[in-house]
Amino acid sequence: MTVHRLSPEILSAMESAVGQSGVAISGSDMAKYLGDWSGDHRGGALAVLKPASVAEVQAVVRLCGALGLGIIPQGGNTGLVAGAIDIEARGAVVISLERLNRIRLVDADNFVLQADAGCVLQAVKDASEAHDCLFPLALGAQGSCQIGGNAASNAGGVNVLRYGMARDLILGLEVVLPDGELWDGFCGLRKDNRGYDLKQLFIGSEGTLGIITGVELKLFPRPARIETAYLGLASFEAAVALFRQARRATADLISAFEIIGSECIDLARLVDADLASPVEAPVHVLMELSASAAVDLRALLVDFLAGAMESGLVAEALLADSDGHAKAFWAIREGLVEGQAKRGYHVRTDLSVRISDIPALVDQARHFVALEHPGWLPQAYGHAGDGNIHFNVLPPEGLTVVEARNRGADITAGLYRIANSLGGSISAEHGIGRSRHRAFWAGLAPAHRRLVTALKQALDPDGLMNPGCLLPPTETVP
Amino acid sequence: MTVHRLSPEILSAMESAVGQSGVAISGSDMAKYLGDWSGDHRGGALAVLKPASVAEVQAVVRLCGALGLGIIPQGGNTGLVAGAIDIEARGAVVISLERLNRIRLVDADNFVLQADAGCVLQAVKDASEAHDCLFPLALGAQGSCQIGGNAASNAGGVNVLRYGMARDLILGLEVVLPDGELWDGFCGLRKDNRGYDLKQLFIGSEGTLGIITGVELKLFPRPARIETAYLGLASFEAAVALFRQARRATADLISAFEIIGSECIDLARLVDADLASPVEAPVHVLMELSASAAVDLRALLVDFLAGAMESGLVAEALLADSDGHAKAFWAIREGLVEGQAKRGYHVRTDLSVRISDIPALVDQARHFVALEHPGWLPQAYGHAGDGNIHFNVLPPEGLTVVEARNRGADITAGLYRIANSLGGSISAEHGIGRSRHRAFWAGLAPAHRRLVTALKQALDPDGLMNPGCLLPPTETVP
Question: Residue limits of the FAD-binding PCMH-type domain (chains A, B) (predicted)?
Fold first, then answer.
């Protein structure tokens, strides 16, 4: 819709910067860059540019700066908050990092990997494994999300509990700044306390302060033993108590502690109709421990669970007997997310609270939906070990998309109110993007707003980096 | 020397802000706030103010802002880089946090502790232990350093390997901004991805962007088992290879991996003349593993070391048989630092390199000292698991302090050149302060300088926060 603004001169300058094959301007060529994975968001762009080197990223940023064009950095486009989709279609340029996709270095001796921002997360994980190392970031989207996007959005996932968010896994960044200059923040050091830690600015900034072109990552020894258990519990309270005991009993050998309300199992059946639930209980827990071969992890887990069953905290427990068995457990967790997507539009949230407040969050949210939005189906699951619950709500059959979205906005607002009243967060791991920035901004204290604005102004005074994302738009749509 | 500038009006305003007992202006009252632990630095101040509440910190900051007075936030004064000592004595005001010393909350269920900035680190550790939790930051100075200073300087220590720097242990901060406003960044959440992570700005900023008044910390399960070994090895190469194997063999159950050149043992003997070295080898390693009671850590360590001795990597190995025995091993590590202090002035560094470059760093540094500064005594020890070597150099007997300091400056510069040539850091954990800011600044790429300056300008436009620290001074001494 904005192609008419693209003059021959601008097109020619773009082609000079990234080559003809690096420029997409037709609707069909741009299509895959203008809609996100969830199907929830579509946007517009003046052009999609695909630089093939860091120097080309710099050239494109300088060109956009000279023309006053907004820049939307884009990775694998698997985010859920329209962080890389210009839903207001204000004539910005999408810069896709997909052609910057080289693993630069795997230094297994020092447990360091360097990669271009456009490397797919799975490729990073595979390259680490090939050197008998682990890069622990693990997400449903790992086959298509890009490591630069993971850094820019501070991605979370199922192993945060043990290894932290993307922020905790990054040793260094390479960033093209809004003026086109390159900041080389690679150092290869495990410990470096030379002044302000500038990489922290860009991690989680969602492309609003610069374009990440390269990442330097921490690798870990690959755990030689992994034990996986699928548990049935009576309540969310029991799950939280179990987690607390497990942290102490294992001294933090837990690598995942996922919680699944039993209502979610029907969603997983949309992907695998024959799926049999491993347990029959209101609340399921998928728990994973990992360690080196020198630790008898199986005995540790068996002893711990025996105690938990004896004390009545755990009702049913299944231990994976093989890798395949463990994968089948994980397929339930992954299937319920895919199953939701098959249901089309639904309310997605990404709430976090203090871990001990998880039961209150789920109770209040279920009560709210039942009372004020009867017929809508709540689904509660998430990374309980991080206090992070994806409390999602499926619309009843028969609603039009417009009706569902309107009502969905009310439900979302109600769930945010509940999270806020518990001192929680409306974005535990997905970020703010364009779909949450109003709720985000409304919830900020004045001092916090001033700091956010001052940072943005200091680094991107012209406001060209990912306009409309994270911060409230500074310009209005023409 | 600057008391004459303190008019009765200003003094009276200061007393209104913090009460009479909160103001020190005489040389004797100010003395302990104007010299650091090492004895290397002394500075001056117009006054030392000791606010007893967050509101009093705000009042003091507003007063200094109105008067255009520089502000030097000060914790336990145990830093080594003159970060809280105005060595140029430019008439700033020291704000000591020592009266803000309350543990605000220990939430063992959620593994969270909140404390005033002025709490001594040991008090934080004790409060955690009282709830059967661990706060893992561990420094020689933990009996007097303050947790706010640990946050402001992103302190390191002996357990970084397992638990990270102060940055990694902080969930939230409370900060009085340069305009006197309070930013409340406590949230109690393990996971929160709402936009820019503002606390990262203040961690490691050495008081140049605001005054930390409160910290919210991550606690951990207290490891029920700790095993400690003292090892003798032939070389730094062997120590690095051993570390690499140990990471894999234990899947990161190592909580400390300290390296000590055998020459340092004589320093420890300055503290305990009867000290017998546990091993006779060129390089000593103090290695600690920790885990829950469910892990047979002793067997794991014995097996690992047996293999390492069989392969010839380790020459001698002693396992601690009791807590007292382990403490005796640690007393060597702590004693050598105290022993150095007894020697008076010496060259102190805090270098880091890629772990695999540790042998090159030590070789080149020793060679440089032997060749260009014969008679000076190099001491190499540090946190090898982090790539962090304190390569210190003692002056020969008979030099005057002035002669030693002049030559010491040359030696320091030479050691920085070696670290830089290996792609290393001149400050792994101690920070920049006033003693390293010229070397720091000289080593920065232009894009990095611009970012640092832009941040400082954005948050502290009047340049009143810790002037002369970290950044080059913006004003000249009158």
Answer: 41-222
